[in-house]
Structure formats: C-alpha cells, structure tokens
Design brief:
66 residues
Length: 66
C-alpha cells in the first residue's frame, strides 16, 4: 500500500491489547504494523473519516459509501 516513504509511529499499550493485536495479525498472516494499518483504515472507513491518498483497493472487500 505504501507508495512513498513511510512514517514511524510508536505507541504503548497494555500487554493484553498487544497480545490481541498479535493474535489478529497472526490469523491474518500480517505484521503488527500492517495489522494496525488495516485496522485504522477499516475504522476510518466505517466511521466516515476521510482517507485522502488511500485507494479504495487498500482493503479487500472495501465498498464505497454512496
């Protein structure tokens, strides 16, 4: 999905949150970073936040809100 240079983000979470994130990433065969990216895109699309520069094809089964 990254077209240009990527940005680094560092966050602290409680151990159970990290374990849940790791479990989700493992199930999806993704890295932690990619799983966070997918979750943020899904959240933004579900809640109507604009994602300029992120193509609709960035997530499988993504549908346009028309």
């Amino acid at each position: 999905m990254a077209v240009g240079k990527t940005e680094a983000v560092s966050v602290r979470v409680e151990p159970p949150i990290k374990a849940a994130l790791q479990a989700a990433a493992d199930r999806e065969m993704r890295s932690l970073a990619n799983m966070v990216e997918v979750m943020v895109i899904a959240y933004c699309r579900t809640n109507g936040y604009p994602l300029p520069g992120v193509p609709l094809e960035a997530l499988p089964n993504a549908k346009s809100k028309s």
